[in-house]
């Protein structure tokens, strides 16, 4: 089985969460952006911690039961499951493109130019990344 990065994810989340708490403590008199930033960092940190804990628990359960670990590895490497993940990723990519386009146009129509330009930039990066990855994978295959 591949090396599990669950514990590293846990520590990354813990670090982000602690940075959010430190910003809240030292920026207690600041309102607005600093307060929002500390809250966002604490929220992302807590989410990343939860993912790390789930990965660690999954790894421990698979270590205790080698038969389930073997079945899990077979399912991960099964060609049908790989193809299903590829198709789901492709469908998700198209959904994200349309959602980014709708958000971009909504911001522009509502006269929120800076968020509109940022979301349009994200849309171009999103679409451009497809061509970059197509080039990379075309070279590999």
Shape field = flat
Q: Could you estimate the helical fraction of the residues in percent?
A: over 70%
The number of domains: 2
Q: Over the alpha carbons, how many angstroms does the gyration radius reach?
A: 21 Å
User: Between the first and last Cα atoms, what is the distance in angstroms?
Assistant: 24 Å
Number of helices: 5
Percent in strands: under 5%
Overall pLDDT, averaged? Answer: 85
- In oligomeric terms, what are we looking at? single chain
Beta-strand segment tally: 0
Largest sheet, strands/sense/barrel: none
Structural class: mainly alpha
- Low-confidence sequence ranges: none
Topology order in helix (H) and strand (E) letters: HHHHH
Give descriptors for this structure:
0% strand, mainly alpha, 2 domains, 141 residues, flat
């Amino acid at each position: 089985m591949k090396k599990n990065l669950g514990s590293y994810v846990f520590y990354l989340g813990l670090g982000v969460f602690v940075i959010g708490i430190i910003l809240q403590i030292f920026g207690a008199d600041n309102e607005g952006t600093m307060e929002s930033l500390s809250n966002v960092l604490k929220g992302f940190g807590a989410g990343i911690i939860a993912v790390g804990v789930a990965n660690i628990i999954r790894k421990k359960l698979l270590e205790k039961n080698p038969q389930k670990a073997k079945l899990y590895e077979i399912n991960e490497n099964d060609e049908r499951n790989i193809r299903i993940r590829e198709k789901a990723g492709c469908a998700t990519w198209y959904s994200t493109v349309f959602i980014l386009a709708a958000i971009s146009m909504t911001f522009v129509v509502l006269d929120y130019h800076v968020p509109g330009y940022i979301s349009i930039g994200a849309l171009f990066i999103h679409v451009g990344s497809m061509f970059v990855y197509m080039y990379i994978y075309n070279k590999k295959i």
